[in-house]
Design brief:
Layout: E1 8-12, H1 16-50, H2 55-82, E2 93-96, E3 99-102, E4 105-109, E5 113-120, H3 122-128, H4 134-143, E6 149-155, H5 158-164, H6 168-171, E7 175-179, E8 185-192, H7 193-196, H8 199-215, E9 220-223, H9 226-237
Parallel strand pairs: 5-9
Antiparallel strand pairs: 1-2, 2-3, 3-4, 5-6, 6-8, 7-8
């Protein structure tokens, strides 16, 4: 995080329990993913060499291995996303008169924001918690940093933002989209607020960002469903994205 350019208006410090437990749980997921991949690979080799079991059995082991790969990739990406918000001794979020920054992001001037979008996934997550198997698995994912309050910042020049970031792993989580007429590619910064902030602080931070966007004429919206959220932000990210307004 770079030094704020303007007077500080809001600072959100990490929840001390989440700041320690969430990265630890995510590392456990990564280790588990590697172990399960190794187990699946060993199982396929053993079945092929011994001739024990049918192709159906081998197929089941392969499917198990692919699921383990999915677990590993998801955990690695989540770890990089967490590095946008967590850094030793740094606040999670700082809002100033000139822009917004996080532990892993330099200050983004308000003029560089294309939009502020929020997906409140808590209602859907609460419903899934009651579903057998999915509920307990989802609970573990929440412990590992799968937040339910996603705040996404659309940046006018995602490549320039990536270049300013010192953490290359975190920089890779800034998504890049199609080029606009000015030659810049929009960037998308995903911030899982409640993954590392106390719930009440996360809610305050989101409302503040939406309020600041409103005051500055920056497109902003709050959604509780992923598909409408994607339909709203897509045209703001990529000039080639189909939209009802353009059609």
């Amino acid at each position: 995080m770079s030094a704020p350019a303007g007077p500080v208006r809001f600072v959100a410090q990490p929840d001390p329990v989440k700041a320690v437990s969430v990265p630890r749980w995510n590392r456990r997921f990564i280790v588990t993913g590697w172990a399960l991949i190794g187990l699946a690979a060993a199982g396929v080799v053993a079945l092929a060499l011994t001739g024990f079991g049918s192709w159906f059995t081998i197929g089941l082991v392969v499917v198990f291995g692919l699921a383990a790969c999915g677990l590993l990739v998801t955990s690695l990406l989540r770890g990089r996303m967490l590095r946008l918000l967590l850094a030793p001794g740094a606040p999670v979020l700082v809002v100033t008169d000139t822009g917004v920054s996080t532990a892993g992001l330099p200050e983004i001037p308000w003029s560089e924001l294309a939009f502020v979008g929020v997906l409140n996934d808590r209602p859907r997550t609460a419903r899934l918690r009651s579903v057998p198997i999915f509920g307990p698995a989802g609970g573990l994912a929440l412990k590992a940093g799968n937040g339910t309050l996603l705040c996404e910042l659309g940046v006018r020049d995602g490549e320039a933002l990536r270049a300013r970031m010192s953490d290359r792993g975190a920089a890779s989580r800034v998504g890049l989209y199609g080029r606009w007429p000015d030659g810049a590619r929009r960037g998308l910064v995903p911030l899982l607020m409640d993954a590392v902030l106390a719930d009440e602080v996360a809610a305050t931070a989101v409302q503040l960002l939406l309020g600041e966007a409103s005051a500055r004429g920056i497109p902003h919206a709050l959604f509780e469903q992923a598909l409408p959220f994607t339909a709203w932000k897509g045209p703001l990210l990529d000039p080639a994205w189909p939209s009802a307004e353009r059609d």
